[in-house]
Design a protein that fits this description.
alpha/beta; two-stranded antiparallel ribbon; single chain; 16 helices
């Protein structure tokens, strides 16, 4: 399925478009919806009718009393199921009550990590709306999800919680008057009180929440307990944006009534690989009915990019191509290893030492090839990955040397021929170790 077709199906499922929605309902399979526990978190699980999901999407909701049972959320995740994706929608603690704490983020990370462990290629799309959008960006930067997220889709996120607290309490944003919905003030109040805890003195929090003078905000903010400052920093995605090396699709309305467009613009500037779509088709996170052709085209392109990784990057034929790409890289490494061994051995080095040196030389070159060509990973975690790759390389080098010794000493094979044979024998276990441990990719 092409990403533009997937986008059309999801939009028609979500927005109830005349003629198109009935057609999508008629000609696509209704997914199976069930409740499940994923990573210790209660989730809504949407499974496609197809035997094998094209990809896995972790949907992170915003704050709403109905949680994932909200009709708009149900239409959206079912639409994702109609395009053949497995959708995991965790019911994050506190969000139903408008409360955001580090435990909310921790639950998002746990659910996403568990979903990635069973995803077709070990990678997921994080798709978040409102508070869930910011949580998705923060979760993607967690070390446990390194190399396991292909795309983050963030609809109407915030960048810095301090700015949102200032706006909610004083009605000012970046020194300019900026009114917001009372729901944002409620969200800020509940979250700050949760951060200070029931047993601590909350007078500083209450004074900040009661203040409407922007001139006093900084003084009152500085008087808050230090743990609240730490929580506000921890839950601000701008903090991690610079090191988030995954594709990020941002979208926001120019007149968003909750979080200013400037918040998404901050993230777009700080993120290494982000694209921001500004649209009039959104009322915060809900689609507005409109017939502006240019806006529809822009938004449909954003939606297509959002689902591209889920419907194309995890197809069975691309997974099946991994061993072939591994063998291609291995063939180059094989040639380098054999030639290097011949040169080192001919120079008078004992064959066991020559074998290890030649293999480790080829190992370094193959790491680059396998990281960027075989498994298509980004720059994030390059040196950590190389440390694991080198550890596996040392193990394989030892196995290779043992096989070579057996061939030379036991069978009387010429060391140059024995090296070539030994390398062929260690290739299958090397592939499994490199894939499952070095690059942390699991089979479907």
């Amino acid at each position: 399925m092409r990403s533009h077709t997937a986008a059309l199906i999801v939009m028609a499922s979500t927005a109830r478009i005349p003629l198109l929605t009935p057609l999508v309902t008629r000609f696509t399979d209704e997914p199976c919806v069930e409740s499940a526990t994923v990573g210790g978190v209660c989730c809504t699980l949407v499974r496609p009718q197809a035997k094998e999901a094209r990809g896995t999407i972790v949907f992170l909701n915003g704050g709403t009393r109905l949680g994932c049972n909200h009709p708009a959320v149900q239409r959206l995740v079912r639409g994702m199921g109609r395009i053949g994706c497995l959708v995991v929608a965790p019911e994050l603690p506190g969000l139903k009550d408008g409360e955001l704490t580090p435990a909310t983020l921790e639950a998002a990370v746990e659910a996403a990590s568990a979903a990635a462990a069973t995803a077709p290629n070990g990678r997921i799309v994080l798709f978040g709306v409102s508070a869930g959008a910011s949580l998705g960006l923060l979760a993607a930067a967690d070390p446990s999800l390194e190399g396991r997220v292909s795309t983050v889709v963030a609809i109407a996120p915030w960048a810095e919680l301090d700015s949102i607290v200032r706006m909610a309490t004083t009605g000012f944003y970046a020194e300019a008057r900026r009114e917001t919905t009372p729901l944002v003030h409620h969200f800020v109040a509940i979250s700050l009180r949760a951060a200070v805890g029931p047993e601590r003195d909350s007078r500083a929090v209450n004074e900040l929440l009661a203040n409407s003078d922007p001139q006093r905000f900084d003084v009152l903010r500085a008087a808050l307990p230090s743990e609240i400052g730490a929580v506000l920093e921890q839950l601000s995605p701008l903090r991690v944006a610079g090191r988030l090396d995954v594709s990020v699709e941002l979208v926001s309305a120019a007149d968003d009534g909750y979080f200013p467009l400037a918040e998404a613009e901050k993230l777009a500037t700080a993120l290494p690989n982000a694209r921001l779509t500004v649209t009039s088709l959104l009322d915060h996170v809900r689609l507005r009915p409109a017939m502006r052709v240019r806006e529809l085209v822009r938004f449909s392109r954003f939606t297509a990019r959002s689902f591209a990784a889920a419907v194309t990057a995890t197809k069975k034929q691309r997974r099946a191509a991994q061993p072939l790409r591994f063998l291609t890289v291995g063939a180059v490494g094989y040639a380098v290893s054999v030639l290097a061994f011949a040169a080192i051995y001919t120079a008078g080095t004992p064959y066991v030492i020559a074998s290890g040196a030649a293999y480790l030389l080829a190992n370094a070159l193959m790491y680059i090839g396998n990281r960027y060509f075989t498994f298509r990973l980004g720059h994030k975690g390059f040196w950590t990955g190389y440390a694991r790759y080198l550890a596996v390389g040392l193990l394989i080098a030892g196995l290779n040397a043992s096989l070579l010794t057996a061939l030379v000493e036991g069978a009387g094979v010429d060391p140059r021929i024995g090296q070539a044979v030994a390398l062929l024998l260690v290739t299958p276990p090397a592939f499994l170790l490199f894939k499952r441990w070095t690059f942390k990719l699991q089979s479907a």
